[in-house]
Amino acid sequence: MIAFIVRRLFISVFVLLAATYVVYVLTCFAGDPLASLSSITNDQTRAARMARRSELLHLDVNPFLRYFIWLKGMLGFVVPGIPGSFGTNNAGQDVGALLVIALDSTMRLVVTAALTAVILGVIVGIVSALRQYSGFDYSITFASFVFFSLPVFWVAVLLKQFGAIQFNTWLRDPVIGLPVSVGSALVVALFWQAVVAGDRRRRLLVFGVVFVATVAVLQYLSLVRWFANPALGVGMVALGGVVAGLAATAVTTGLARRNVLYCALLTAALGVVAYFATGPVLINPTWWHILALIGITAVVCTGLGWLMGGLDRGATIRVSLLTGYLTGALIFVDHVLRAVPGYLRMVNGRLIFTVGSETPNFLGRDHFWLAYLDNQTHIILPTITLILISFAQYTRYTRSSMLEVLNQDYIRTARAKGLTERTVVMRHAFRNALIPVTTLMAYDFAAIFGGAIITETVFAWSGMGRLFITALGDVNPDPVMAFFLVTGGAVVIFNMIADIVYAYLDPRIRLS
């Protein structure tokens, strides 16, 4: 393993050197970095600024040799005694400082979207493969192709209009009319009847129950004006914890394993206790408080799973951890929702924003929940835009990979041995179906560091994509090279991680 990593890194260094040389030279020949100063009417000012920019960018040196000036700055990060620097842009700003700001902004935007798209896409792809040629499969296939074919800028504009402007207007008087409730319930009911397997009678029953329940819930929420003062409350946290425990048990071991099921339900009950116990801490916490609570949850759930697991300790611990963290997430969401009315008063009633990454001159930065809301409400629309596109890719890749694996001989052998369908799917089929999906994940996660150029432009998000486009338009090699180093290094690292994951997923693969 160590020899493989060292060999890959050694080869990658030379590949990156060659690639950076080509990109640097091409950027230098892409235009004239002094062209933007030619519009200055004062001859002395124009000459002084041109001389200053020529000195900053070393324009008196041939581009083929200028690269080595930039390379010397890069060597300073690994060779003692040489000062490291990413260079400067046309305005004389340090590129390293700009890179940190852009990378932080991009991570906030793209990481959440990528993780959500992976999780949802893989889960839906597996279910679609297991329900091949069902109504759910056809629906997901149709939706995936629609999402994948949608232009990003068009989706962004629609989300701005209907997901932000009209939604913010509706929040001033959040009343849901009966026709809207019926239309929403119809969509939800159609979805669930497609998800649930069975004959026509069972699906019609599911459709009717979900339709009536959705209309009733929406009308109740409208009547009590829940959207004006949202919260989950202890009842919803308890119900969500129980549902999370049942789901985690059903997926991991099955509900027949009583010790695992009882452990999951006890974990959900402890989550209700934690709802009250953590109340004083979560009034205005810090991220250190949140991390401490996550650690305590891990310790308690692991100990509980160990004590109640018996012969199924590993599975019991996993189920307990899943239940504990999902219940904890509901508690977190409850506190976020309770902060919404105060946040709306500080931002003139606008909950969803269409541009920027934060509210200028926001006065609630010293309050954890208000600051968290401000960050998240700016990220909602661009995140949804990215999820819709990526979700389609992961769904289709996972479905086709899963179908191919399910038709293999060893899957038929596993079923012939009498293994449960859950064991066959989760331990044998799913693990091998992840191999081609891992390749796509490695590429996408490496691309995260390059940002989402179109999305960042539409939503005025100053991330890596905007940094690259701006620098390229200004014929500014140093920011372009900083962008290229980050994205190129990410490609190398994540592809190496993918190779290591291959060996874990399939023992027949040897890294040597």
Structural overview:
There is one protein chain. The chain has helices at 2-28, 43-57, 63-75, 95-130, 135-149, 152-171, 178-195, 200-223, 233-252, 258-277, 287-309, 313-338, 340-346, 368-406, 409-416, 421-448, 453-458, 464-473, 477-505. The protein is mostly helical and 512 residues long. Helix 4 packs across helix 14, helix 10 packs antiparallel against helix 11 and helix 11 (287-309) runs antiparallel to helix 12 (313-338). The mean pLDDT is 86.
From the structure above, extract its key features.
512 residues; mainly alpha; globular
Structural class: mainly alpha
Considering DSSP H and I runs of 4 or more, what fraction of the residues is helical? over 70%
Average per-residue pLDDT, rounded, comes to 86
Q: What fraction of residues sit in β-strands?
A: under 5%
Helices, strands, pairings?
Layout lengths: L1 H27 L14 H15 L5 H13 L19 H36 L4 H15 L2 H20 L6 H18 L4 H24 L9 H20 L5 H20 L9 H23 L3 H26 L1 H7 L21 H39 L2 H8 L4 H28 L4 H6 L5 H10 L3 H29 L7
Helix pairs in contact: 1-19, 4-5, 4-14, 4-16, 4-18, 4-19, 5-7, 5-14, 6-14, 7-8, 9-10, 9-12, 10-11, 10-12, 11-12, 14-16, 15-16, 16-19, 18-19
